[in-house]
Amino acid sequence: MVNPDHPLAELLARDVRYKFEAYLFVFEALKYAHEELGMGATDEDTSEVGAEDDEEHNRHLSGQQLCEAIRQYAHQEYGYLAQEVLRHWGVTRTGDFGEIVFNLIDIKEMRKTPEDRREDFEDVYDFDDAFQRGFQFSSADASEGPRSK
């Protein structure tokens, strides 16, 4: 699971609201946001001196953007069960993503800008709307009837 010497192990012992998998999922969703959704895309001129800091700033996502990336990634990974998986990990609202992110900031596993606040994650979307009513099945039209082999 997690190395007992890693700061995340101490965090998990101190704050038991969220499971280890929730923290991993937020990291994975952030990567998905950058690589698959193109959020926080960098300019091509990042090869200049000091560009590493500029690139990190340009790759920054707002709380709302990260919540949207999480929603899309959860749909991709877990489909209709996304809400149940998140609930199992202790996540029941977008504000929980903010708590996770700021916990990771506290242990220096993520960074923030001076403008970032926990409140940026509050009420970004309703979980029922985002993960149940907003889910679209991609199966064949029901009017086709059952398929035979």
UniProtKB/TrEMBL annotation:
<dbReference type="InterPro" id="IPR026406">
    <property type="entry name" value="Ver/Plancto_CHP"/>
</dbReference>
<protein>
    <submittedName>
        <fullName>Uncharacterized protein</fullName>
    </submittedName>
</protein>
